[in-house]
């Protein structure tokens, strides 16, 4: 479907979006209407958006069917097209990254260095309504996934959920910082607080896991063990700093036991980047008693996670994080600068470039483990 952008006299933009009308069905390229920004809102032209496993999880696996119809996508970068009343931080032409984890800057959570949660955002996300959504298709309001919805050529966001970035940043690269790369990298440097000379294990070598490997290396880890059942990903992990590779299928004993034996008693840090509760337990039990730290990074809400109390009583720490502990407005500009300064890799995550019309092809690639990140534009470059 070819859809040109049309701006009406009322300020409504007609453009292209990939709409998920129902769970577990292919996305449909539709013409949508994007309302003008209201007070404290900005309208953004999405230049590049990538496909994250979280999009797949909520499309295919989540039990929450109240999401639909929705526009998925939450890892993107774009340019401010217009701003609503009360917006002073942004102006048309600014390069930005939309945030699924907003930062109002005023609540007790935003003012605390201990968390990247935002009280205002938590209340908005808990409402489960289309009140703050500005997308319409065929007369029906569409939800914006995580209040972003970047599989639409234009979106409207509250200004607290937008980060302004360096105008020199290539949007088709820094879009990856909207979720996966910051999530994995930050889990290592912000949450685990990996120390120089330490030994780490990263479970799962998707984009988040590879970013966690990169974070462990940046923090000075001496040994980084990459764990995955897909041996094709091991060479890619080496690019980001992995020193050892373990495929659980190659062993007839628990992976935690394998790692304990490899390291003489356990790793200092482990990061679970899959979203599998059994792997979460394995990651914890791979840690050395006394000071080992295990971070839950992968998302799931389908099952409880459990371990025997002694595994914690012996001195291990079990924790988790969202978005790698980064406060979005503060953290993303710094990560963009790190990329521009060649201190953080982004290009190496991108295995495919497509247009939004090919979104279902991108989904199939990710489902089959044949891609790390696919970056999509709304028209060919």
UniProtKB/TrEMBL annotation:
Task: Give me the Gene Ontology terms describing cellular component.
Answer: cytosol
Which GO biological process entries does UniProt record here? formaldehyde catabolic process
Cofactors demanded by this protein: Zn(2+)
> In this protein, which residues make up the domain named Enoyl reductase (ER)?
22-376
Key word Oxidoreductase present in the record?
Answer: yes
TM annotation in the entry? none
Protein's name in the database: Alcohol dehydrogenase 8b
Q: Upper lineage ranks?
A: Eukaryota, Metazoa, Chordata, Craniata, Vertebrata
